[in-house]
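Known limitations

Structure tokens in this collection are predictions and should be treated as such. Users comparing against experimental data should check residue numbering before alignment. To illustrate the layout, the record for Big-1 domain-containing protein is reproduced below. The input appears on top and the generated tokens appear beneath it.
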Amino acid sequence: MTHNTPNNTQYTQSPLRHVLRGLVAGAARRGSHLRGDRRGASAILGTMLAFALVVSLVAMVQVSAVPAWNQQTEFEHLTAAETDFAAFDESVAKAVDGRQTRATLDAGVDYPTRALFVSPAAGSGSLRTTDPATARISGAVATGETGTYWDGSEHAFDTQQFVYRPDYRYLQSEPSLVHEGTAQYTAYAGSEVGATQSLVDGTKVSLVFLEGDIDTATSEATTFGVVPLSAGTDYITVTDAGTPITISVPTRLSEDTWRDLLADEPNVRSIAYATGTDYNTLTVELAPGKTYDLRLSRVGIDTPGALQAPAYIVDVEGDNAVVPPGSSHRAVVEVRDAQNNPVPNAVVKASPGLTAESGRVVARDTDTVSTVTDSDGRATFVYTATGSIDGVVNDEFDVVVEDAAGATVDRVTFDVQLREGGVTDPLRGLVAAVDDPGFVYADVDGNGEFDGADYRVNDTGTGGDVKYDAGTDRLVVPPSTGTIVSDRDITLAGDGVSLHVDVVATGSNSRVDVDAGSGSLAAVGVSVTSVSGKDITVTAGDEIDLSGASVTQGSKAGLSIEAGGDVDLDNAGVTVAQDSNSLRIVSTDGFVSARSADISGKGDIRIDGTDGVDLAGAGLSGVKDNGALDVVSARGGVNLNGVVMLGDGDIVVDAEGNVFVVGANIASTKTDVVITSDGGMVSGREAAISAEDDVTITAAVRIYLPDSSIEDEDTPELNAPEKEV
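Generated tokens:
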């Protein structure tokens, strides 16, 4: 039995093991299916991880790289905007020259669209003109016809600034592009870059006043007009009268930047800078004693513009003319605005239309007393003289300019002299008419008539001297006195002198002294002669009028004509006949005019007009003992058009302003010719300039002598930044 038990046990366990094996095999089969499922889950997880990685990368780029890219876009837009702003500055320059243009600024930045990334909407920018502020100029005294307006007083001008500010999201410092008229720059918080200025350039001073009404924000490119409201086509030649010229402009440009911009300008004497609430104020003081070219312009921004109001009127042609009786004479005026630029369509009138000497004045285009200025701001009037005169008669008439309401803004006076023969054939000896009671008298009230408190002045000379002295009153020597002749001294004195007779000193020791004190001297057409005596001196604290006169020094003595104001020697003859005697014609604070005059001497000749010298058509001769021939103007220019200037010593022309030599003939037969314009140019066609030794021509701005002949023993010396010969 024991033997069979294992057999039975073995038999009974075999089916169970089989079942168990089946179960295990099934479980194994089910297990192998579970392992396949785990491989699918890993692929999905990997995809999810990759997607998360891409999302994270996109987020990182969006957070870090996209702002950097957009910042670069903004920087590129700023660079393009600065280019547009430079083009706008060029448009302003064109408007200053009278040309209307248009300018464009791309106000808003356009961010590019990028796949997978978010970019902001297009940005905007603001364009605006600021509130008006005031620029000022003081101390500027003009030479020539504008001197009545530019007389050193202060002139004020409204001006604005043009500002463009883009609205950037990424650049750390938001800039503003600013144009102030006299400066342009890009402003950041606490600093500026790219600043330029046009206020002072050597002796040129330029102010551009901006005017507009812009205040807009846009994301689009904006185009607007740049309009010349007052085109600065002409410079005003100005200097100071003892008080330096100062220019003040409103600005937001920093003081340090202004000092850097003006550091190399030698004529900027000092800079002051005052801070303000809306604007700061820059004040520039110019070096005194120099001549400057001042240019003023007004430019409109996105405005149709309006005619500038007239500020003053000047004579262009026709003043101080000699007119034959019964003939007509043309007078041209020009109306200018506050910037010294022409005003078209301004109402101008002859006032009155009938003069004190019965001359008639009408506008040429209307044949009435009134007209309007043309596109150049000019109008022409015709003066017709009376048909009969007594001797030489002075006449005058006014032309006024009116504002829109009909009120007189300014006037200009034309002086004319009625004389038979006219300016081309002056008859010396025809003297100005005056009230003549039959004796020398004192004109106490200065009205040219013997009336009221006027009294007779007797000859108080002793020992053969002739002396008429009115003391503190004006001395009048009328035609009835007859020629004053003496072999002793002749003295005519007063606080002003009107001389209507010839004066002749015949003695070897006699002298002639005409002294108008602090007043003026009028001796039109008379003859003053020293045959063989001592000096002739003619002096006045105010003006001297010797037009058409003859002043002759026949002996070995000097001749001096000196005035505090203007000296008029048009058509006169001034002569020193003997050797080694000086001839001086001086205006210490005025202008010397000697058009078509004959001036000759045999010693040194000096013509000195502080505010200018006009020798057009004159003849100057100094041909003895190497005498110098000097023409000088400390503040003005010299007109030598058509002059004949001959000397055997040095010929020196030295002016602060321009020197004109159109058709001039200037020659030194023994030494040098030196022509200098310290602050302007030497200009003229068909001039002939020669010297035995050297010709030296110097100009601060330009030498312009086309079709001219310049000769010396070697090679003429020409000194100027620009030369055309």
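For this record: The CA atoms of residues 20 and 26 lie 10 Å apart. Helices lie at 4-96, 255-262. Please report discrepancies through the issue tracker.
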